[in-house]
Each structure stands twice: as C-alpha cells, then as structure tokens.
Write a structure and sequence with these properties.
Strand content: 15-25%
Largest sheet: 8 strands, mixed
Radius of gyration: 21 Å
Oligomer: single chain
Number of strands: 13
Shape: globular
Number of helices: 11
Distance between the termini: 13 Å
Length: 409
C-alpha cells in the first residue's frame, strides 16, 4: 500500500487469500448510583458541546483543518523518534500476580525509548511492585493514531476477562481532532459499558483524563490554547458521566515533564508518570484482588495459533529486506509519501514492510480498506474515503487524508 498526504491521495493494492486460514497478503500502491447514559440526558449536548452560532461552527471547521495539518506534521516528526518495536515479550505470570491492561495512545506508545521495559508499561509494573511488593504484569494495546472511537476495534479480540484492572489512557488525539463533547462523552460511555460487560466479576476500570499540554514541544500559541480548551471540556464531561460508577474511577493527570533534550518522551518521564498512576491503580487493584477467583500462574505460552501474527514474526532476514526494498522502490517510482506491505488474517492486518517509522505493527482489519479487497474477486475502488460510510470514521485515513483507494485481491 502506498499513500500520499496531499489532496486527492491515491491507493491501489493486490491481495492473496489463504485457503485454510482466511489470511491474505496485500500490497498496495497509492496515496494517503445509577448514572444516566449521555443519550438519555435532557437539555441538549452534555458538557456544552453545542456550538451557539454559524460563525463559531465555521471557525471550528477552520481550526479543525489547521490542527489536523499540524498533527500530520507531528506524525512525520515522530517517524524519526525511537519507539519500542513489536509487542512486549511474553513473560511467565506467577501465581496470584496482578494483571493490568493498558489501552492508550500518545505517550503510552513509548516514544523516546526502544524498550518496553523503559516505557510506561515496564515502569508501571515496577512502580506497582514497589507499592505492594506483588508481581504485576502490564500489557499494552493501542497506537499513536488510535482515537477514542477506534478503541473497540483495537481490543475486539483481546481477552478482557483475564485482567484485574483496565487502564484507559488516551492522550491528546481527540482534543486535537476537536471531537465534539457530545460525541466523546457518548463514545466513552459506550466503551466503558463494553469493558464492564466483558471483564471478570470484580475487575476495575481506571480512566485517565487527557493530560495538560503545557511544557510539550510544539504546543504553543493558538495550537496549545485550542487543544487545551477542548481537552478541559472533554475531561469535565467524562468525569461527570463516570461519577456514579463505583467500579470505575476517573483520574486527572498532571502535565508530563519531558527532558529538554528528549521532548517526545524518556525513561525518566515514564518513571515519574508511573508513580502517579501507581497510587490510583494500586488502590483499585487492592479492591479487585479481594474479589478475584483463585488462578494458577502461567508460563506465558499461548497455545492458540494465530497464523497471521506468526507469519509476520517469521518474515525476517532476506524476505523482510526484499519487501522493504520493494516498498522503497514503489515509493520512489510512484512518487508517494508512504508505502507498506501487509498481511491480512482474521480480524487483524499486519505490516510486513512500512516506509513510515514508529507506526503500529498491526491494526484492526475493521478500520482498513483491505478488509473489503480480500472479500471480493475483482478490483475494489473507493473514489473518496471521506464520503464512504465504511471508512470515513477510520483514524487510518482521517489524519493522513487518505482518500482514493483501488485494490485487487
């Protein structure tokens, strides 16, 4: 797949499907008390999300374009920033150990370090151990481009019932997108309801607010003021709607304090943040532990076979190099900004070669055009993804302005 971020980006692809495992290899060429649910409240949009005038709505549309363009530039800058590659290594889980699922974007991705152990996942494990002297395993699901509306596809196949605590940490993506307060509140309510339905009995949920922007590189002037204002509105709305849930806690986050020479993140910053998280998470784990059924420790071995993930991990050495060279040549020949080769399997799409650095290793197939390509037997064309209800809400196309698509199975 190739994508270009200019107006009218194009994309085309070819895919081949596995006969036995519904897998597909896709290459592409193109351009890029009992709380009340939000819907049940009276008085219009909760949290003041209704814009009062046409002028304000028009101004917000202009701001949204401006912020989106700024975010595209930031994503390009992140391509040169170190980040952990691949999922964290599976480790044995001792008998009685606490298990935490971290769902997030932004700093939770681990920008500024190449090790999951030095990123937020590893630092939080260490902080929770220091607090309780108990082993804790923290697993991470998410990606930089994931917004609140896209969380459910990312966790669709994750065993939510295995965890004692689910920690949701969404950074500035929705504030930068100027997601409406009404939509954000409704999306959060729906997600928390889904998590509570899928968790084990007694497990807890912690929702972290959007952190302040002050001190962060690039968030100056109008960009910083607009983003902070929307973040404050979203935080207030979510805190209000979750206030009546005894098993869900909303926690406000302090502003991260990056080191001067490492503005995108560092082990020191993640250690400081983990100390903040450990107090709230530790308290909720204490409550969850008292209701947890006995369970044996695990070796960390997963006996289920996921052929797509296994094949993606096995594509290494010469083949990986050939695919990377192919992507680089295609990027040059077709004069586009982004090229990747993907493997489609079940509900996931795995990146085998990608000219962009620091992106996700896999994404939910439900957010991708490739899911439609591999279902058919002929070419699949989308003239404008933003006008197609199947794709217009996908974060995979929203920020890079990926419009045109043409694929062949």
């Amino acid at each position: 797949m190739l994508r270009r971020d200019q107006v009218g980006p194009r994309h085309s692809g070819t895919s081949s499907r596995s006969e036995h495992h519904d897998s597909a290899l896709e290459t592409g060429v193109g351009s890029p008390g009992s709380p009340v649910a939000p819907e049940a409240r009276a008085g219009g949009t909760p949290g003041g999300g209704v814009l009062g005038s046409r002028r304000r709505r028009a101004f917000e549309r202009v701001l949204r374009v401006l912020l989106k363009g700024w975010y595209v530039q930031r994503l390009r800058a992140l391509q040169n920033v170190p980040a952990p590659e691949g999922p964290p290594a599976r480790r044995p889980v001792e008998h009685g150990a606490d298990r935490v699922l971290l769902i997030g974007n932004g700093f939770t991705h681990g920008w500024g370090t190449r090790s999951h152990g030095l990123a937020l996942t590893g630092q939080l494990e260490a902080a929770l151990f220091r607090r309780s002297n108990r082993q804790t395993r923290v697993e991470y699901v998410g990606a930089e481009i994931m917004n609140l509306a896209a969380v459910e596809p990312w966790i669709e196949e994750h065993p939510i019932g295995d965890y004692d605590l689910i920690l949701l940490v969404l950074s500035l993506n929705d504030a930068l997108r100027l997601t409406s307060v009404h939509d954000y509140e409704a999306q959060m309510w729906h997600l928390v309801t889904e998590l509570r339905a899928r968790r084990r009995a007694g497990a807890r949920v912690v929702v972290a607010g959007i952190h302040p922007v002050r001190g962060l590189a690039g968030y100056r002037g109008l960009i910083g003021r607009v983003t902070q204002r929307r973040a404050d509105e979203l935080n207030a709305a979510v805190a209000a709607v979750l206030a009546g849930l005894d098993d869900v806690e909303f926690m406000a986050l302090p502003a991260p304090v990056p080191e001067s020479d490492r503005p995108f993140g560092s082990p020191t910053m993640y250690a400081e943040w983990s100390a903040v998280f450990s107090e709230t998470c530790g308290r909720q784990l204490d409550a969850a532990r008292s209701t947890r059924p006995a369970r044996a420790g695990t070796t960390g071995h997963d006996w289920s076979w996921a052929p797509g993930r296994q094949l993606a991990e096995d594509v290494d050495g010469g083949l990986r190099s050939e695919l990377t060279d192919l992507a680089a040549r295609a990027k040059k020949d077709f004069k586009v900004d982004l090229v990747y080769v993907t493997l489609v399997d079940g509900s996931r799409q795995f990146y085998l070669a990608n000219t962009a650095k620091g992106g996700a290793d896999e994404v939910p197939l439900g957010l991708s055009h490739c899911r439609e390509t591999v279902r058919g037997t002929d070419e699949f064309v989308v003239p404008n993804s933003f006008r197609d209800p199947r794709f217009r809400d996908s974060p995979l196309i929203e920020v890079p302005q990926f419009r045109f698509y043409a694929g062949f199975p």
